[in-house]
Design brief:
Strands 1, 2, 3, 4, 5 and 6 form a six-stranded mixed β-sheet that branches. By secondary structure, this protein is an alpha+beta fold. The radius of gyration is 35 Å and the shape is elongated. It is built from 29 helices and 20 strands. The longest helix is centred in the N-terminal third of the chain and has 21 residues.
Length: 728
């Protein structure tokens, strides 16, 4: 199957494209035709094996259209090296191999790539497939070209085996983090390979198409290169969903006059804007195959205007809103379709106003409004940004020399790419990296949350649907293992809380460095960074991870624990009071502060002749002093056991009560009594009176309770004991 046969573009779309070109009066990016031109050169048929197409002229012409002052000498030198090194090599489709780098370079040239990118594109397969070395490329074309070529060069399969593909993408993404032009070349390379995929076996077509769908198309979307993304989507659609593709193709072919319906609306819009004095180009923009398929699934039967959208191009940002006002005044707007991506750009640089209006005949037309600059960025994304390092000084080492690897930070690096580069370093094996990469790229939206502590950077970029768990690992890395909870917009919230765009987040970390995550955190983690870190910690602490698994999922806050752990009840620690005269009827620890050895204590006589013992500093003891009650000297005896009341504050979750009582029992304490207050704002307060065989173990017990997932604080009871009801 030829490249043309595998490219899903209909005659109707060709006609619409021609109409668009005439309406605009200038060349339109048409990658399908450009790919054909690169393959065939100036000839009308396939190039003979003994003659190479003279396509460098097409590249030069396309490049000069965007960069009139560009020096073409370096491109011609790169072409000579590429042609001579690939001479004698042929693609599976039968064309000389040089047609591939030429087609890739032509795609990038039409998108407006600068000279260095085009030079590297011509040479992108030389190091991988010929005798040309990276050092030779560096000597003849400089460090930047060599870096780009190395970035897209595959790792050796003989060294990596089945892991070659994941490791190639890992290497490529790391290189992209330092220079985003690496991925631009890879996307154009994959587009041309997909165009000519018909010569491959069906199973290989499907495998390549799936990787393109799962990895390359999301990367094209995130880098904003819509011109490449849309054609890749159609090519993948044709291979992986042939029946749906054929249905969509027939639907488009069966509506050859669909562009006329939009054309009529376009003329009305053009007239309205001329009358308002707004200079604008109004274009009919046909939908690509996947877009038509999605609209059909959403709306059912399609009308003429559903096969495309109107594109209005203006000079200034303010004009965009002027156009919007005129459209909403002169036509009936469909308010639910309005989106402002100018005031709030997408994370992939995309800016545009989206709206829909109903014409007098009832036809609804979707409208995109943007400036010419916005349109260029919307089509070409990061390719339109040119060299990201222009005006940036290369980093120097401490001795004043440039680093040997030439690595430097790309100032245009988006937040999602920085996150990806961070977590890929922690991926323990290629399979984990490959699986995590696909999952990460499947998230097609991004949110920004603000750090409450005000430290730099003040924001955290996360995928939509991320939770406080993700924010914790994004901010603190492995230190997030000890996270207890969070404050979201000033209110306490569990780590499972899903964050929204613009939320303010303060993460609460335990002071105990031995704290660790719970397996339940994996249910709330959306980012690979969080999932990998949690999984690795649980693997390194199998015993701890096992005890953290919910032992009684049915246990809910508000229930009393099984009383059996309290069967080993023993009397409290021995207390002595130094009294003159009659000995006390009893000496007992006060219920308000439950002192245990070696707390500093003081006692007071109460009714009935007993002495209650308080911790020094207890609020009840201070109150008795203020009313003139005389303290009694008390001291601990030799026994180390004691009784204490602890208050655990936590976020509610199933199994929490069971986990807390299990932690208490594991520490050797016995539950005398326990109460759980009704949940309030997802927070639960547990009060335990415990018998300790050795009061010196109290700090360890409190640490064990704090270590239970969901518990953010454990403290000694400091409130006044509840008064007993009076008899009447």
């Amino acid at each position: 199957m030829s490249a043309e046969a595998t490219n899903p573009v209909s005659a109707a779309e060709d006609a619409a494209a021609d109409t668009t070109v005439r309406r605009r009066g200038r060349a339109r990016i048409d990658l399908r035709r450009l790919g054909r031109a690169a393959l065939l050169g100036a000839t009308a048929g396939p190039a003979p094996r003994d003659r190479l197409p003279d396509a460098i002229g097409h590249v030069a012409e396309a490049h000069r259209a965007h960069h009139p002052e560009a020096d073409l000498t370096v491109l011609r030198r790169a072409y000579v090296l590429a042609e001579s090194s690939h001479r004698g090599q042929f693609r599976k489709s039968g064309e000389p191999y040089i047609t591939h780098p030429l087609a890739v370079t032509l795609i990038l040239a039409e998108l407006g790539a600068e000279t260095t990118t085009l030079t590297a594109s011509l040479l992108h397969d030389t190091v991988e497939d010929t005798e040309v070395t990276l050092d030779q490329v560096r000597r003849e074309f400089g460090d930047e070209v060599a870096y780009l070529v190395d970035g897209v060069t595959k790792v050796e399969k003989i060294d990596y085996g089945a892991a070659a593909e994941p490791e190639t993408f890992r290497k490529m993404l790391v290189a992209t983090g330092n220079d985003v032009r690496v991925m631009s070349i890879k996307l154009a390379d994959r587009l041309h390979n997909m165009r000519t995929l018909g010569v491959m076996r069906p199973e290989k077509q499907a495998r390549i198409a799936k990787v393109t769908r799962d990895v390359l198309i999301p990367l094209a979307e995130r880098l904003g290169v819509q011109a490449l993304k849309t054609e890749l989507e159609d090519l993948v659609f044709a291979i992986l969903h042939p029946e749906e593709y054929e249905t969509t193709r027939a639907l488009i072919a069966g509506n050859p006059h669909a562009p006329d319906a939009l054309g009529a609306v376009a003329e009305q819009v053009d007239a309205v804007l001329r009358e308002a004095g707004i200079a604008a180009e109004v274009l009919v923009r046909p939908r690509h195959f996947v877009s038509v398929h999605r609209v059909r699934l959403k709306r059912g039967e399609l009308r003429g205007c559903d096969f495309g959208r109107l594109l209005v191009l203006v000079a200034e940002d303010a004009d965009c809103y002027g156009v919007l006002g005129e459209l909403h005044t002169c036509f009936t707007p469909v308010i639910s379709e309005f989106k402002d991506f100018i005031a709030a750009p997408k994370f992939n640089l995309y800016q545009s106003l989206h709206t829909a209006v109903a014409a007098p005949d009832g036809a609804v037309a979707e409208v995109l409004i943007r400036t010419h600059r916005m349109h260029k960025v919307a089509e070409a994304g990061v390719v339109a940004l040119g060299n990201p390092h222009v005006g940036q000084e290369p980093p120097e080492q401490t001795d004043g020399t440039a680093p040997e690897d030439g690595e430097r930070v790309d100032p245009t690096r988006p937040g999602w790419l920085s996150r990806l580069l961070d977590w890929q370093q922690s991926a323990p094996d290629p399979d984990t990296f490959w699986t995590s990469l696909r999952a990460d790229l499947a998230e097609d939206d991004e949110i920004t949350v603000f750090r409450a502590d005000g430290s730099a950077p003040g924001t955290i970029s996360l995928p939509a649907g991320a939770s406080c768990v993700d924010a914790a690992y994004a901010q603190y890395g492995e230190a997030a293992h000890s996270c207890l909870g969070a404050r979201v917009n000033g209110r306490l919230a569990p780590l499972s809380t899903v964050l929204g765009d613009g939320d303010t987040v303060q993460l609460l970390l335990a002071q105990d460095p031995v704290s660790g995550p719970s397996p339940e955190w994996l249910d709330h983690a959306r980012t690979p960074a969080a999932r990998i870190a949690i999984t690795e910690w649980l693997r390194a602490h199998p015993e701890t991870a096992e005890t953290r698994l919910p032992s009684r999922p049915d246990a809910q806050p508000g229930t009393r624990p099984d009383p059996r752990p309290a069967t080993a009840r023993r009397s409290g620690a021995e207390l002595h009071a130094d009294l003159d005269g009659e000995p006390p009827a009893a000496i007992r620890p006060a219920g308000c502060c439950t002192p245990v050895p070696p707390d500093e204590i003081t006692g007071f006589r109460v009714r009935g002749g007993s002495v209650t013992v308080h911790r020094s500093g207890c609020a009840s003891a201070d109150a008795m002093r203020r009313v003139g009650r005389a303290p009694v000297a008390v001291r601990w005896g030799d026994t180390a056991q004691g009784r204490v009341t602890l208050v655990a504050e936590s976020f509610g979750r199933p199994g929490l009560l069971a986990d807390l009582t299990e932690a208490i029992a594991a520490a050797g304490a016995a539950v005398v009594s326990a109460t759980v207050e009704p949940p309030s704002e997802q927070r639960v307060r547990h009060t335990y009176t415990l018998h300790l065989p050795d009061a010196a173990e109290l700090p360890a017990l409190m640490r064990a309770m704090r270590d239970v997932p969901g518990v953010y604080d454990v403290s000694r009871a400091r409130h006044r004991a509840s008064p007993r009801p009076r008899r009447t």
